[in-house]
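Ticket #292: bound-state structure for 1-O-phosphono-alpha-D-glucopyranose.
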Amino acid sequence: MSIKPVKTAVFPVGGQGTRFLPATKAMPKEMLPVVDRPLLQYAVDEALAAGIERLVFVTARGKGALEDYFDIARELVDSLKAKGKTAELAALEATQIEPGRMVYVRQQDPAGLGHAVWCARHVVGREAFAVLLPDELLWNPANPPLKEMRDAYERLGGNVISVLEVPAEHTHRYGIVDPGVADGLVTEVRGLVEKPAPGTAPSRLAAIGRYILQPEVMDVLAAGKRGAGGEIQLTDAMAEMIGVQPFHALTFTGTRFDCGDKAGHVMANVALALERDDVGPAVRAWLRQLAL
Ligand code: G1P
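RESOLUTION: The complex was predicted; output attached.
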């Protein structure tokens, strides 16, 4: 049986962003810039690079700026045109998504990541779909991570999640894989545990916010079982799919920035600025001075 391409991506963007207060008091954390683009734009670009056609944003109260961001800002475009600001116009155009490809679903209750994903079930339908957590900036322009996962999925079928080895003392922060047989970057998943207590993790392979999942996970999530932190966890629902469907982890080979964390967000800004022709030289020169 041929495997159908993954066409839908779900972006859970309902989180309150309390770690970034006060910045997030009046603005969604997904709009925090990394150099000059909002964090969410990086995840959207990654999805588009993987051939995703339908973008589903699971939003919440106070997240209206996200919808405005993907609109055409007609007055702004007209005024930039009148002033001949072609570079700025091009920057806007590069973020424009065809009408009808974005869907916004509201998560009415902050009941966890699994619940957020489940809120998208009617839009996802009965096809495999991707989930991208925009807090996790996975940087590998030469080989965009979701595209790499999609290629693995088209070979392996079932479910594919992106993982990275984390230090043992950090495993309690993540969904952790109980690994089976490994073949290069692909590891069979025998079990998954959300935020294991220190010293109890089955490995150091952590889920880093990219998933390609079968629609049956929605049926599991529908039960609304509460897990770690009293929340409906995506990890727990995925764990129930293991053994029923193929389940693999693909080790990410690029650079990961945890932009849900202040230090990670600052590092992403510095690292991506250094790669840019416009701001890179000034930032590099300043960093050299600091190092003296
Ligand atoms: C979520 C997931 C966790 C995953 C992590 C990656 O946790 O529940 O399994 O490892 O994202 O960032 P959160 O960071 O929302 O607590």
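RESOLUTION NOTES: The mean pLDDT is 95.
TICKET STATUS: resolved
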